[in-house]
Amino acid sequence: MIRVALAVAFAGALGCVLRFLVASYAVAQWPRHFYLATFTVNIIGCLLIGLLSGLFLLRTDLPLELRTGLTVGFLGGLTTFSSFSLELLKLLEAGRLPEAGAYLLCSIFGGLLAAWGGLSLARLLH
């Protein structure tokens, strides 16, 4: 169990650093659209978790440390729902209702579509 926890911690740290770098870049390039970094990592994370989950169903021989480290650790560190929620509230409080609505709908449906796409891709690769 300690090896799995260490794998999650290490991979989670990598995911967090990557999210920080993406967010820093996005804010520097598009300060008004600060939420695009969270949106991007959440959509990519949904795609990857779907893909990896599908592949791991086929490759149960892969070590638990690798499977859990990538899904719970790396993708858990990379994606974030709490930041999404706070950014959505900031858009609402700023009266940017159309943008907030688009962000909400695109994040939810985009995430679901990306996770489905990842699972479908894993099935195609099988």
TrEMBL record:
Keyword field: Cell inner membrane, Cell membrane, Ion channel, Ion transport, Membrane, Metal-binding, Sodium, Transmembrane, Transmembrane helix, Transport
InterPro entries, per database record: FluC
Inhibition and activation profile: Na(+) is not transported, but it plays an essential structural role and its presence is essential for fluoride channel function.
Protein's cellular compartments: Cell membrane
Catalytic function, reaction form: fluoride(in) = fluoride(out)
Membrane topology: Multi-pass membrane protein
Subcellular location, principal: membrane
Source domain of life: Bacteria
Annotated transmembrane regions: 35-58, 70-89, 101-125
One Pfam short name: CRCB
Chain residues that bind Na(+): 76, 79
Purpose of the protein: Fluoride-specific ion channel. Important for reducing fluoride concentration in the cell, thus reducing its toxicity.
Similarity section: Belongs to the fluoride channel Fluc/FEX (TC 1.A.43) family.
Entries under PANTHER family matching the protein: FLUORIDE EXPORT PROTEIN 1-RELATED
Name of this chain's protein: Fluoride-specific ion channel FluC
Organism (species): Pseudomonas cuatrocienegasensis
Encoding gene, per UniProt annotation: fluC
